Amino acid sequence: MTAPTPAGPLSPAERAAERYTDGEWHRLHPATPLLRGGIVFIAVLGFVLSNLRERIIGFFVGGDEFRGGDPLDEIYDRGWEGWALLALAIVLVACIGAFYLAWRMHSFRITEDAVEVRSGILFRTQRKARLDRIQGINVVRPVLARIFGAAKLDITVAGHDANVQLAYLGSALADGLRSDVLRLASGVRAAEAAEAAAASGTVPVPGAPAGTGSRAQAVGDLVNRRVNEFLAPELDPAAAPPESVVKIPPLRLFGSLILSGFTVFLLFVVALLVWGTATGSVWLAFVVLPGLIGSASFYINRFTKSLRYSIAGTPDGVRVGFGLLSTSNETLPPGRIHAVEVLQPLLWRPFGWWQIRIDTAGRSREKGAAGQANTTMLPVGDAEDVARVLALVLPGFATPERRALIVDGMRSRGRDDWTGSPRRAAWLRPFSWQRTGYRLLDGAVLLRRGFVWRSLALVPLARLQSLELQQGPVERALRLAEARFHTVSGPVRPRLAAMDAEEGVRLFQTVAAGAVAAAESDSSHRWGRVEEPPAPPAPPIAPIAPIAPTASSTREGDPS
Predict the structure, then answer these.
(1) Which of 446, 445, 424, 442 is nearest to 434 (CA)?
(2) Counting runs of H as helices and runs of E as strands, what totals does the chain give?
(3) β-sheet bridge partners, residue 62
């Protein structure tokens, strides 16, 4: 038997958004047609008319009667001002009618178990996202939409091209709907009926002008709201505890961009250009210089789009936000992260910088910070930032003991209490064989590898899809094996190569048993509900006694 966890008081935005989760069909923001391409259409139409106006007038008048000149003067001389205005009015009315019809036919509804969107005039489409399959919710505010006080609500669902997007909604409404959808998905119902009844009629709707105010006051309030939206911080201070917020200093962000692989490529191109100039190959300048000039925009865009980057823990999951002019704010509910990788490029090692990537079953349509994929949870951070972010995405690693274990996995050169590779693995991994190793914890496996490019992968056993033990002919001769941990598609590739074959069999059987037990006890898809009474904690995974490797287990997936 489950019961909802105690919920705090609802914000005005959440109160105002409750009427949109009644299971009925609702329409989007009135400016949606313009924001979804109407402004671009009008601009293109104006460009075409301004450049082809002579030919258009000549088509209606005739080639013999109209031989050039300014069309506006010709219309005035012939007395066609009324007809011209009528034609312009017909075109505008037709465009506005098409936009209005598209807006009327585009609606959404939110029920207790799904979010649905239907759209289209001639060809109707309907998309549906189940709440228990939601992987994340992203609130995106492009700079033009912020002028209109609108935002996009991108609901990420597991599966290829399965996302549902509500574009556009009122900015405050988008925040409120995100909270309401997450509350429904977590198993927490709306606020108590007594509180709702007591607060009915007293909570003002965000963005609605006071009924007794003047029109000038309403316009002033609207301007103030738009200014406050532009100047407001990316993350509301009341949405997350301050100690959970991780931010990236601009100087560190700039340094990480300079010390990137793209910079190394640019240095190589510049050296090639200098060599070509010295040897008289002037043609290299015409080939290389345009690319070098365009590289400046690469750094500028990546830097500006990553400003105000922040990661914080909220009651509904990890909140990741960024952006200066166009902002993005995504929430990942608990249990949606299938694998985590902490890695360190070679050029970052002197500064102690790291990056964190994740695997999720679904991805937002919008790009992440600096144009990177949304699977990049921390573009750049120090060891303390890594520990805080891992405590957010995997709460079990928030203890000091777990933090020490993470530091060992990140910095250790091997030969410690991790289960590592045997000495004969140096034939295949001459530099990294000592660092290669794994550790099993309650509900997760940690994989450490890499000497030049360090990497630490963490895989929750409840999210593990399958485990493969592979052994090629060279590995068979050295009595080695490679374990591959299969999760959903993403940038993280959890694997452990050049490990002892017998140790691989023990790891295979231990992880397989632990994954089944973790999946049976997992309830993270309903993170807002608690068990009554609470279930006893699962016993720690005990290692299985050594057994001799068998052909079927050590050679599973053998490509030979």
Answers:
(1) 424
(2) 17, 23
(3) none
The pLDDT confidence band at residue 203, using thresholds 50, 70 and 90, is very low
Least confident of 113-117, 355-359, 361-365: 361-365
Place 446 in a pLDDT band, splitting at 50, 70 and 90.
very high
299 prior amide bond cis, ω within 30: no
Element (H, E) at 157: strand 150-157
Secondary structure (H, E, C), 240-303: CCHHHCEECCHHHHHHHHHCCHHHHHHHHHHHHHHHHHHCCCCHHHHHHHHHHHHHHHHHHHHH
Residues 214/555, Cβ–Cβ less than 8 Å: no
Question: What is the dihedral angle through the alpha carbons of 41, 44, 49, 51, rounded to the nearest 10 degrees?
Answer: 180
- The whole-angstrom separation of Cα 165 and Cα 116 is 9
Contact between 161 and 185 under an 8 Å Cβ cutoff? The reply is: no
518 Cβ neighbours under 8 A, 6+ residues apart: 443, 460, 461, 462, 464, 538
Q: What's the residue count for the chain?
A: 560
pLDDT in tens, 409-440: 888 887 788 898 999 999 999 988 989 999 98
**Joined tokens for residue 134:** 């939601």
Report the candidate in 235, 209, 213, 203 with the shortest Cα–Cα distance to residue 222.
209
- Tell me the average pLDDT of the chain: 77
Nearest to 436 by CA among 423, 452, 448: 448
Cβ(470)–Cβ(481) below 8 Å:
yes
Instruction: Please list the residues that pair with 483 across neighbouring strands.
Output: 469, 496
Which residues lie across from 439 on neighbouring strands?
446
pLDDT at 406: 86
pLDDT at 453 over 50: yes
Residue type, 222: L
Report residue 266 as tokens: 């640019």
- Alpha-carbon distances of 275 from 272, 282, 328, 560, rounded to whole Å: 5, 10, 44, 47
E-strand stretches of 410-479: 419-420, 437-441, 444-449, 454-460, 466-470
The structure tokens listed for 549 are: 């490797």
pLDDT of residue 500: 92
d(CA 427, CA 463): 33
Confidence of residue 163 (pLDDT cuts 50, 70, 90): confident
| Element spanning 173, H or E | helix 171-186
Closest CA to 140 of 360, 306, 323, 374: 323
Contacts (Cβ under 8 Å, ≥6 apart) of 395:
334
Contact 363, 375 (CB under 8 A): yes
Query: Could you say which DSSP state residue 383 is in?
Result: H
Where does 422-498 have alpha helices with state H?
A: 473-477
Radius of gyration of the chain (CA): 30
Tell me the C-alpha to C-alpha distance, in Å, between residue 262 and each of 94, 270, 276, 290, 347: 49, 12, 21, 16, 12
- Cα–Cα distance measured from residue 525 to residue 110, given in angstroms and rounded to the nearest whole number: 18
Query: Is the pTM for the entire model greater than 0.85?
Result: no
Upper half-sphere CA count for residue 503 (Cβ side, 13 Å): 19
What's the pLDDT at 215?
67
What is the pLDDT at residue 484? 93
